[in-house]
Specification:
With about 325 residues, the protein is α/β, with parallel strands linked by helices. It has a single domain, classed as TIM Barrel. It contains eleven helices and ten strands. An eight-stranded parallel β-barrel has the order 1-2-5-6-7-8-9-10, surrounded by six helices. Helix 4 crosses helix 5, helix 5 runs parallel beside helix 6 and helix 10 packs parallel to helix 11. It is globular and about 60 Å long. The mean pLDDT is about 95. The protein binds flavin-adenine dinucleotide. The site of flavin-adenine dinucleotide has 21 residues, from strand 5, helix 5, helix 6 and strand 8.
């Protein structure tokens, strides 16, 4: 079922979560072990992230360095097919502009369509680690809005080859990303909302937010979206913090801040277990308040470890 239909039909807040493909070399069972415990809470869809290639330098003979392109977490499309085959749940692959020409995107969408996958989250992706800003591929999409347009075109039977007649119309439901604390490159939240609205006007049907730890920021974001005429469902993204490393990593990587109460609680943590306990308590509080306010769905970022999301879900659902 399409995510938008699930959201429209639901009488109460539903649950969904996001997983990362396993690191190259690990089997799919490592992924199932993370999914199994959450299935009892009847998630309606599972998002699978996409990780683009990165360049690394390998030392060769005589000290030469060879630039090699590697993907540490391949397999998004295969994982989606495997999840839909094993569980009674929709899989939502993340599709990014980075690293893809429009033709490669078109071919990926054809594969997804053949597999019976009806949902995609359309994203731009970030710059490669070695680059200072995002660089689209030659003849690739530059912004998520262009990717949305490409998917919408295929839904209308318009492929890149304009002469193609009677081409199969795909039937994707498209989600996009939104940022309660502003996307870090945007001049202002207002400018960011203008760009978000463009994605909706082109045909995206719902928004999933970047993680946030202060519900007031989400409520304010939803208000601003509504005032700007963005009227699609806005799914809050919740990240249970699970390790000492994440205390620094999360604000730096995702350009978000912790509220003072949370940072005070985290300051007292000495071990990953202490952090996970705080993360679970915070996640429960956040989720209960959002659910009480009638959000359409609570979307949990597991980042490879689902135990905290499971404990939060056990309290909330
Ligand atoms: P866009 O909507 O294209 O926006 C990017 C920036 O450009 C914003 O500042 C926006 O305001 C601005 N902008 C947009 N359109 C225009 C325009 N026409 N002119 C000028 N400026 C414009 N990354 C991955 O690599 N893989 C994933 O699986 C992944 N999953 C994610 C899931 C969620 C829910 C979220 C919130 C993010 C995810 N990301 C993922 C990260 C995402 O790719 C980055 O945040 C990226 O920097 C922006 O992506 P976007 O789709 O929001 O881009």
């Amino acid at each position: 079922m399409k995510v938008i239909d699930t959201l429209n039909k639901a009488k109460d807040t539903v649950l969904s979560f996001e997983i990362l493909p396993p690191l190259k070399g690990k089997g799919i069972n490592s992924l199932y072990q993370g999914i199994d415990p959450i299935m009892e809470f009847n998630p309606r869809f599972v998002n699978v992230t996409y990780h683009r290639e990165e360049y690394i330098y390998k030392k060769r003979e005589k000290g030469y360095l060879e630039k090699v392109s590697i993907r540490k977490r391949p397999g998004t499309v295969g994982i989606c097919a495997a999840i839909m085959n094993k569980y009674d749940v929709e899989a939502v692959p993340h599709l990014i502009c980075g690293g893809f020409s429009k033709e490669e995107t078109e071919n990926a969408l054809i594969d997804l369509n053949f597999l019976g996958i009806q949902n995609v989250l359309a994203l731009r992706g970030d710059a490669r680690k070695a680059e200072t800003s995002f660089m689209p591929e030659d003849n690739g999409n530059k912004y998520a809005s262009e990717l949305v347009q490409q998917v919408v075109n295929m839904n209308q039977g318009k492929y890149l080859e304009e002469e193609m007649k009677d081409a199969n119309k795909t039937n994707f439901c498209i989600g996009v990303a939104g940022y309660p604390e502003k996307h870090f490159e945007a001049m202002s939240l207002k400018a960011d909302l203008k760009n978000l609205k463009r994605k909706i006007e082109l045909g995206a049907e719902y928004i999933v937010t970047q993680m946030f730890f202060d519900n007031a920021k989400y409520f304010d974001f939803v208000d601003r979206c509504r005032k700007h005429g963005i009227d699609v469902p806005i799914i809050p993204g919740i990240k249970p913090i699970t390790s000492l490393k994440q205390i620094q990593f999360i604000p730096k990587t995702f350009h978000i801040s912790f509220p003072e109460d949370l940072s005070d609680a985290l300051e007292g943590c000495k071990t990953d277990l202490d952090v996970a306990k705080v993360g679970i308590e915070w996640g429960i509080q956040q989720s209960q308040e959002l659910k009480a306010e009638g959000v359409p769905c609570l979307h949990y970022y597991t980042m490879g470890t689902s135990e905290s999301a499971r404990k939060i879900a056990a309290h909330v659902f």
